[in-house]
Specification:
Blueprint: H1 7-26, H2 32-38, H3 44-76, H4 78-95, H5 102-114, H6 118-129, H7 135-163, H8 166-187, H9 196-200, H10 206-211, H11 216-234, H12 240-247, H13 254-283, H14 285-300, H15 309-336, H16 343-371, H17 374-395, H18 397-401
Helix pairs in contact: 1-6, 1-7, 1-8, 2-3, 3-4, 3-5, 3-16, 4-5, 4-6, 4-8, 6-7, 6-15, 6-16, 7-8, 7-13, 7-15, 11-15, 11-16, 11-17, 12-13, 13-14, 13-15, 14-15, 14-17, 16-17
Length: 405
Amino acid sequence: MDDNKHWRKNLWILLFGTFLTGIAFSEVIPFQPLYISELGDFSKSQLSLLSGIVYASSFIVVIFTSAMWGRFADRHGRKRMVLQTSFGSAVTLFLMAFCTNVWELLILKCLQGFFDGVIPNSIALVATSTPRNKTGYALSWLSTGYTSGFLVGPIFGGLLVRLLSIRVSFMVTGLLLFSFFLLTYFFVEEHFKPDPAKLKEKKESFVKIIKRFPNTHFVVWILIISIALQIMNNSINPLITLYVKELMNNSGNVSVVSGIVAAMPGIGMVLVSPWFGRLGDRYGTNKILTLGFILAILFIFPQGFAPTVLFFGVFRFLTGVSNAAIFPSVQTLLAKGTPSESTGMAFSLNQGAQAVGICIGSLMGSIISSIWDYNVVFYVSALVVLVTFILVKIKVPELRDSKAE
């Protein structure tokens, strides 16, 4: 039976699942320091340090486990990988409700990072089961799913905490993820035939894994693009509230306005992502990627000299529009530029690259803002995107001369 007959059903179920995963991984952000403060008697500096360590821990684990999960997916199938990671994530989130000290929370956050394979393997499953002429459309919708989840997560978490409690919010999220596990188990179809040669393969180094791709140069540059994009977004995200407070002259309802401004990129991406996907299928994904790079540079730089919070909010929304052109394009190019039997590994490596970018971006933004000011972070982020764009155009002929179909 052909997977292509079931691609629409797979897409909508996995869209729901990645939406829930986005919520699960982002809902803790608003109240994580509050939860940590409940787990011990910490000073302000200790609380800040522990919050940073706990936040970073899951991404650090992802860096080291993404290749392992990718290898497993290519050997045993993407559906099985989605099942394992969704079940593991559900149990981990549920157990966070019962932490008695910060070290237990840290261990569970590391486990959350260990099971952080739902999104890349859902992408790989959709990419391999969707007709090639619909790949851009499908992946754009899927990116809308997890982007919406990351957008809704902090709001959803805040509401749960307000109505119930922090601990109950972890339970509810865990149960929602378990519902996705059940939907995937019963309704997602993948007719995977393992490659006997892959089953006999031994663990390889990162370099050897990369070299196994038919177009190693292309894959490496896609990973570099992913790192740069995460540096761009995550150098800014931790500073948004502080920057908004400065723009509002330390007056007014800063928390509400900051929440709205923080949501703007996600809203922009959700609104236009499918449209960019269809344009990519029609005119060439590489052209949409180029457009996204140009828009990102034009929209990020002015945020550094925003005169008002309204100006800043509008350009945060426009940044989401540029992300809608870039992120699905990267996924589509990776899906089309790698053989189907290695798609799982390709997307897991991409997930690892994103985790590297998140860690670098967060650290870079903190250092730059502490030495100079918040606005300099925007200028440096725009510079990172500009340099990456120039290098890609010079070094990657597939993105310069072809439709990358």
